[in-house]
Amino acid sequence: MNAQKGRRALVVEDDAANRLLLERVLAGRGYAAVACASAEEGWEVCQQELPALLLLDWMLPGMDGLELCRRVRSLPDGSRPVIIVVTARDRTEDLDAVLEAGADDYVTKPIELVLLRVRLTIAERHMDEHDERRRAEESLARLRQQLDGRVALGDMVGRSQGMQQVFGLIRQLAGVDTTVLIEGDTGTGKELVARAIHHSSHRAEGPFLAVNCAGLTESLVASQLFGHRRGAFTGAVEDSRGLFEAAAGGTLFLDEIGDIPLPVQASLLRVLQEREITRVGDTEPRAIDVRVLAATHRDLGEQVEAGAFRADLFYRIRVARIEVPPLTARRGDIPLLATELLTKIAAATGRPVSGLAPAATRVLLQHDWPGNVRELENALEYAVLHCTEGLIAVRDLPPEIAPAAEGAAEPPAGNGELDEAGRIRVALDQCGGNRTAAARLLGISRATLYRKLSRFEG
Asked: What is the rounded CA–CA span in Å between residue 313 and residue 301?
């Protein structure tokens, strides 16, 4: 059997007969096996190049096998190897200690070859899953490298015609300092458009400041935007510059500009026309050098007709405009978006998720996404946190996205020891005998799973 050809294995065993036995079994399965008589020697091997599989005796002279296990797990890539502890100790507390040290499995002495081969087969399935995830991650990295200006700009991706039009307008408007109105539903990525304009412009080295106008109270919005003099109002204990001054040389993004109160709209119009601001409580105007980008999910034309938004300001800020399409208008971009978002979420959470199962992708394509890209990102974050395998399945998605959780094979419910044993058998079958994965699926620790197995098999 040479299915493991090329994989390195390490045996750490002070008993010469057991060491030779383990080395021969591994060589017979195609491993390039290295054998050591002490944990100190094994640690030197692991520091040079981590093997894919480690068989460690617990009781060793000097450093013991569990301490070596802990040290391996502390290495930068220490989660990768499969570690099996070989021990003559089989009490419950001993098993807990083995698993808590970071081992994946154990084999008791005297070594039974049949049982050892079963344990190695399970370990090899685990290694195969890791290799599959690594290949998927490398494929994803290559995909991201291939994303150029045709499908990506800044933090946005999209092959759809609507997004290609957005990318074209961003490149076109980045070269001029005019005000731009960015329109689109909530969650479509209007701030990402603003950031892309800024970073593609000659102001890229300057600050980019974003403010949600809907989050500013009417009494403070003018001070927040234009600054104030000491004593201008209660609580103004010192001079303060506003966002227009803070963004000097860069870009100020006014999100939800439709929520700015009418009195402040007049002051904002003057700023855009005269390129100067006057702090609240001051009489001296101050010149500014800042580009203004604005965004809204409202229909400002309707607001003008209703008297809630100044017509002259409306015409001033929409000199140039970009409309960001909703996600339902660019469903073809969903797989590409999901790939990009999953990369970021997996990196941020440290979860080994490499992609979406085909059935999960179909569910995402069918959903209406009223919250647009933001809702998609939140759904994927939920799925990453609930995923127990390398690929996100339908059952991992939020219930509002896939209410029926199609494709989720749950262990049979029920009470009593017989039903519990049945659930464990189903979980092991689903995970190909991998006890670590089965424990995650059942929502219990590996130590608990081993204790239950010992009870049922005893």
From this structure: 11
Q: What residues have CB less than 8 Å from 127, skipping those under 6 apart?
A: 7, 52, 53, 82
For residue 380, which amino acid is it? L
Task: Look at residue 379 and give its three-state secondary structure.
Answer: helix
State the angle between helix axes of 190-199 and 161-174 in degrees (0 to 180), rounded to the nearest 10. Answer: 40
Q: Which residue has the tokens 């890209």?
A: 373
d(CA 369, CA 384): 18
Give, in degrees to the nearest 5, the angle at Cα 292 between 291 and 298.
160
* pLDDT cut 70: percent of the chain above it: 85
Identify the bridge partners of residue 255 per DSSP, sorted by sequence position.
Answer: 212
- Give the strand pairing for 251-255 and 105-108: unpaired
Contact of 170 with 128, CB cutoff 8 Å = no
Report all structural domains of the chain as residue ranges with CATH numbers, in order of start: 8-143 (3.40.50.2300), 161-324 (3.40.50.300), 328-396 (1.10.8.60), 416-457 (1.10.10)
In DSSP terms, 55 is beta-bridged to: 11, 84
Token couple for 292: 């203004």
CA separation for the pair 400, 405 (Å, rounded): 10
Q: Give the highest mean pLDDT range of 174-183, 210-219, 260-269.
A: 174-183
pLDDT of res. 413: 38
Expressed in angstroms, the distance from the first to the final Cα of the chain is: 32
Residue 134: name the closest of 414, 374, 354, 291 by CA: 354
pLDDT at res. 419: 59
**CA gyration radius, the chain:** 31
* pTM of the entire predicted model: 0.56
- Contacts for 80 with CB less than 8 Å, ≥ 6 apart: 50, 52, 130
H-state helical runs in 181-251: 190-199, 218-226, 243-246
Residue 444 is inside which H or E element, if any? none
- State the pLDDT confidence band at 277, using cuts at 50, 70 and 90: confident
Nearest to 25 by CA among 108, 118, 116, 126: 116
Q: Which residues pair with 183 in a beta bridge?
A: 296, 323
Given a cut of 90, is residue 198 above it in pLDDT? yes
Cβ distance 394 to 407 under 8 Å? Answer: yes
